[in-house]
Specification:
about 900 residues; alpha+beta; 16 helices; about 50% strand
């Protein structure tokens, strides 16, 4: 009996060990198979950090798990993340996996998913990623069947951004679960949802902002007809309960629906909970009264070019609320709003705000608005009238700690008429009058620059809105402006072009405050934190600007004048002039955001008397475009034209820049520049540690990440010099310096260096040969700025000396020189040929070794497959054989790579010896 227990115990232990070990043994093979299958079926880049199988986690089901699953779009959605999940887990039927032809999915678990659904204006969707051939194949019987019993999402975020309908929905902190028998054609699905923040925007207007959502709902699912009916439900938005009834059907591409909603309670307090500024930790203490009635319905078909009919009704009577700790209340709130569309035609929508009345303490606000035929010919009838003392808001609504608000806002505006009257310039048929005025507005919030608007005066006319006066101070910046805006109604209702013209003046504009919220007097901004600023479409504004000072990062511009244009998603600068860095600049350029993921820039500069060191300190890209500038002093002028791209942090993509320019200057000095240090050491002339250019005028061009400098002539320590070449934005160098050095300036050490170059010539001639005057030398500067490589070329010097010797001595000396040179060339050719033979031998031996490795490895792999006795073992052996062949290929390639490296080393050393002989 004891032996039986021992045997049973051994079997149990081995079984448990197999349950744990088998998934790990096949993990790498499984990961490769899964990734290959997903990429084969999806038009997206699929990756995941881990893949796992477990027979214990969801026992008796088999648990299949992907970690750090990521789907990234391609084509128009290149680089956009469609899905990321920290963990994606399926529970599969173990018996189906072991013996069935179909695999049943019992449950789905997704932890910390991030889902970003995008639809472009033309209707293309980033979630339409199933390949065409996969869709066709999907019509065939699938190897998978859904026996789903439950699913759950936890700690998720879901974003739906539909440009075709201008709808944006974001769900933060999503926890959602559902249970139902998906094997049935008709069944009930019970769901539980919790969302910490729901945001809903339509056509640029935010209707819900970070609203908490809790929902319990049961749906009757008809899979065959794709019909989903709400049986019972409970939705709560913040503290506002809603009831929702109806059904949704999904025939083919469109969505057919009939849904009704209504408030679960009629108290004013529940409606207030949806107001972001009011719903806070103090909301539970608020005292509220008043009656609310709200309901709505959506029915009909929703599609790419169709919308359902809808109606919304909201009424508030005698609403009021007050925070217990504050002295005043908001009272006499009356709202009567109806929005109707009876047939789904956008032009049949009518917005009718019959009344909006509220009293904030002693301040009163009244408004009404009626809009008909908003698409064909907007018919508007509305008004807003009231006065608001912002300083009293703190007596009505608790403001965040550290916030101070004051000022007076007055409005008395009336609009009545059809847009066609403005469009056809029949201004007498459209009534528009009134003003909006702001006096002494001041706003201060923790961590933000102080904002004050001493004066704002907007005057409304049928054809335009006139900005009579605007004065603004933000932090240390100040603005004064006047101007007008045309076609405001056409822009709002028809998305037509909005035109405007303004005059802007300022004593100081600190752009760093607007990018970081802090002034430059404390700390410069971190440009890496900036994001692309898109320029709006359908706007044509022109701003005539004058500013005494303008600050941007470390740059300070003075006496700024120019014209700023905003149009066609582009910002253009025209006739801009300013003083900076000790000189003056004239500039024109553009910033283009038609492709907001890759903004384009183009500009031309005309600079005069700019201090080099100030430019390097203020503009980071100067040191990258011209590394020598970091060690240079003096002033320069010239012209520069550049175009290229910006990255997502609004920084130039240096490799994309191209253009040309001309730089000139007098008395330019360069010192402590590593390439000069190395050059002086090679010449044994310490004076060349410093480069003093009495006059320089050079032209250059930029392309493919390099700055190419055209040959320019200058004087360097009394030596005539010609400099040309290029440097890369990666700090690589490729320059040629041609020097003509007077012999009288050569110190003894330098004479020895130059004389060594004539040693072979003197030996051939059998006589002493003196150095030419001046001494000609070519210097090549390569490597990088930090680690330059300097080589000298004395062939020109030797040739000149040889010619002098021929004239002074005999023709025989020249013949000997040529004979020696021929011998040197022959010796160099012999060295190179011998090296090539040796390199070829190394490659041949390596190829033989690699062939042997592959032959033995492939034979071993084939043997594994041949020895497999059953289908399961054969499948495992095939995978092991495939992996073994891959490892064999890697070993063979490593042998070839090592041999090639050794062969190249032999060739390089031979070339170096040959070059030394021919110097």
């Amino acid at each position: 009996m004891r032996k039986i227990f021992i045997a049973v115990g051994i079997i149990v232990v081995l079984s448990l060990g197999a349950l744990v070990a088998v998934p790990y043994l096949f993990r790498d093979t499984l990961k490769a198979k899964v990734q290959e299958a997903l990429n084969r079926q999806l038009e997206a880049k699929v990756s995941f950090g881990s893949v796992g199988l477990s027979l214990i986690r969801d026992f008796p089901q088999l648990s299949f798990c992907l970690g750090d699953l990521t789907l990234v779009g391609t084509g128009p959605f290149e680089g956009d993340t469609l899905l990321y999940a920290e963990e994606f887990r399926l529970a599969l039927s173990l018996f189906d996996v072991l013996g069935g032809k179909q695999i049943g999915i019992r449950s789905v678990r997704v932890h910390r998913p991030y889902v970003q659904l995008k639809i472009l204006a033309d209707g293309r969707a980033n979630y339409d990623i199933l390949k065409t051939d996969t869709v066709d194949a999907a019509q065939e019987p699938s190897e998978y069947r859904v026996s789903l019993q439950s699913y759950r999402l936890s700690e998720g975020r879901i974003v739906y951004d539909d440009a075709s309908t201008r709808t944006y929905i974001r769900l933060d902190g999503v926890s959602h679960s559902g249970r139902g028998d998906f094997t049935q054609s008709v069944f009930d699905l019970t769901t539980q949802s919790d969302v910490s923040g729901l945001t809903f925007r339509y056509d640029g207007v935010s209707y819900l902002n970070q609203v908490r959502l809790n929902a319990e709902a049961t749906f009757r699912i008809h899979l065959d007809s794709s019909l989903y009916t709400l049986k019972k439900n409970e939705f709560v938005l913040n503290e506002l309960p809603l009831s929702l009834d109806g059904w949704v059907a999904l025939p083919e591409q469109d969505v057919v629906m009939d849904l009704r909603w209504a408030l679960g309670r009629s108290d004013f307090r529940s409606l207030l909970s949806l107001v972001p500024g009011l719903y806070s930790k103090d909301f539970r203490h608020i005292k509220a009264e008043g009656k609310v009635a709200a309901s709505g319905r959506v029915w009909g078909t929703y599609g790419v070019d169709r919308m359902p009919a809808f109606e919304v009704s909201l009424k508030v009577e005698n609403g009021q609320f007050q925070y217990p700790q504050l002295p005043q209340a908001v009272h006499n709130v009356h709202i009567d709003l109806n929005i109707n569309n009876s047939n789904g035609q956008p032009d049949q929508t009518e917005i009718d705000l019959k009344q909006l009345h509220a009293e904030l303490g002693s301040d009163v606000v009244d408004a009404r608005l009626n809009v008909k035929t908003p698409v064909s010919d907007p018919n508007v009838n509305g008004m807003i009238k009231g006065m608001l003392n912002l300083g009293n808001l703190k007596n009505v609504i608790p403001l965040p700690e550290g916030t101070d608000l004051s000022g007076i806002v007055r409005s008395d505006v009336m609009l009545k008429g059809r847009y066609s009257a403005i469009e056809q310039k029949r201004y007498e048929q459209f009534e528009a009058s009134g003003r909006i005025k702001v006096e002494n507005l001041s706003y201060q919030a923790a961590g933000m620059p102080a904002l004050s608007i001493p004066a704002l005066d907007l005057e409304f006319h049928p054809h335009q809105v006139a900005l009579q006066r605007l004065q603004v101070r933000s932090g240390t910046s100040d603005f004064s402006a006047s101007g007008y805006v045309d076609n405001l109604l056409g822009y709002y209702f028809r998305d037509e072009l909005l035109k405007g013209s303004f005059q802007l003046t300022s004593q100081l504009i600190d752009l760093n405050e607007f990018m970081t919220g802090t002034a430059t007097t404390t700390q410069p901004p971190d440009s890496a934190a900036m994001e692309v600023l898109p320029v709006p479409a359908n706007i044509n504004f022109q701003v005539q600007m004058e500013a005494g000072r303008l600050l941007y990062e470390k740059l300070e511009l003075r006496n700024v004048k120019g014209i700023l244009s905003v149009r066609d998603q582009m910002l253009e600068l025209q006739q801009l002039s300013f003083s900076t860095l000790g000189g003056t600049v004239r500039m024109s350029g553009s910033y283009n955001t038609k492709n907001p993921s890759e903004p384009q820039i183009s500009y031309s500069l005309n600079i005069n008397n700019i201090d080099i060191q100030q430019a390097v300190a203020a503009v980071n890209s100067v040191g990258q475009l011209a590394p020598i500038a970091q060690r240079a002093t003096g002033r320069v002028g010239g012209e520069l034209a550049v175009h290229g791209k910006l990255d997502k942090h609004m920084q130039p993509i240096l490799m994309s820049l191209s253009g040309h320019g001309l730089i000139s200057g007098d008395q330019i000095s360069v010192s402590n520049f590593e390439p000069l240090q190395q050059l002086a050491e090679a010449l044994k002339m310490t004076a060349y540690h410093q480069l003093n250019l009495p006059q320089v005028r050079l032209s250059f061009r930029m392309e493919n990440g390099r700055v190419h400098v055209s040959p320019f002539e200058t004087s360097w320590h009394g030596a005539k010099s010609v400099i040309s070449g290029s440097h890369g934005l990666d700090q690589s160098l490729d320059y040629l310096v041609q020097l003509s050095i007077p012999r009288s300036q050569l110190p003894p050490a330098a004479v020895q260096v130059f004389s060594a170059g004539l040693a072979k010539v003197q030996q051939m001639a059998g006589a002493s040969v003196s150095l030419p005057d001046p001494v000609q030398v070519n210097i090549k500067v390569r490597g990088t700025v930090a680690k330059p490589i300097i080589t000298t070329d004395f062939r020109q010097q030797a040739t000149q000396a040889a010619e002098t010797m021929v004239q002074a001595a005999e023709q025989k000396a020249q013949e000997k020189i040529q004979e020696v040179k021929a011998d040197l060339r022959a010796e160099a050719d012999r060295i190179l040929k011998q090296a090539q033979q040796q390199a070829q031998l190394i490659r041949q031996q390596a190829q033989q070794a690699a062939d042997k490795i592959k032959k033995e490895g492939y034979a071993q792999a084939d043997k594994l497959v041949a020895e497999a006795k059953n289908p399961i073992a054969k499948a495992a052996a095939q995978e092991a054989a495939k992996k073994l062949k891959q490892e064999t290929d890697k070993k063979a390639q490593a042998v070839l790579d090592a041999a090639e490296k050794e062969a190249q080393k032999v060739l390089q050393e031979a070339q170096k010896k040959a070059d030394e002989l021919l110097k």
